[in-house]
Model the fold of this input.
Amino acid sequence: MKEAFVVNAQLRTDTGKGASRRLRHAGLVPGIVYGAHQDPAMISMVHSDLIQHLNQEAFYSHVLTLKIDGKSEQVILKDLQRHPARPFIMHADFLRVSAKEKLKTHVPLHFVGEEVAPGVKAGGVVSHLLTEVDVSCLPGDLPEYIEVNVSALGLGEAVMLSELVLPKGVELPALAQDDAQDVQVVSIHAAHVAVEEDEAGEGEGAAEE
Done:
C-alpha cells in the first residue's frame, strides 16, 4: 500500500526576494503550485514539516496531497532548491496532476540480487550507471521505485534501459526517442588491480642500484 503524504501550505500574496527572505527568516519555505490548466498559486510551508517529508525517499516519487488553506489538491514535487551551504530548503515547486492525464516525472531505481550475481561471485564489481529514470504514466500508476534484478548478471554483462521490468501503465519516454537512448543501467565489470605501489617499489630499487 502506498504511503499518503499531506503537505500543509498557505497562500501568500507578497512576492519578490524580500518577501521570500522574510518567509525564510520566519521558518517558512516559499513555493509555487502550477499546472492542470489552472493559474499558478504562490504558497508557503513550514520548513520543519517539509524537511520531515523530504527525509523519506518515497516523497519524491509520490502523488502528494497539498492542502492550501485547507483545500486539497493532488500534486507531485517538481523542483526543489536547497541552500548551497546550509541544510535549508530555499524554494519548492509543485505540479498539479489530473487523474486522467499522464504525467512525466522521475522515480528511483532499487537494485536487488547483487550479492548472488555470478559476476560478483567471480570477483566483479557492480556499477550503478543510473540511479533513477524518467517515466510517463497516469497518476494512479506512478510507482515508488522500479526494481532492477541483477541476480543473473555475469562478468562483463549489463542491464539495459529497455530490459527494465516496468509496472503496468508505466512507460519510459527516452525509449520512444531513438535507439541511442537505450543505455546501460547497471553493469558488472572486472575489478581493477592497483599496480602503482609495485611500480613505485621497482622505481626505488632501480634508483638505489
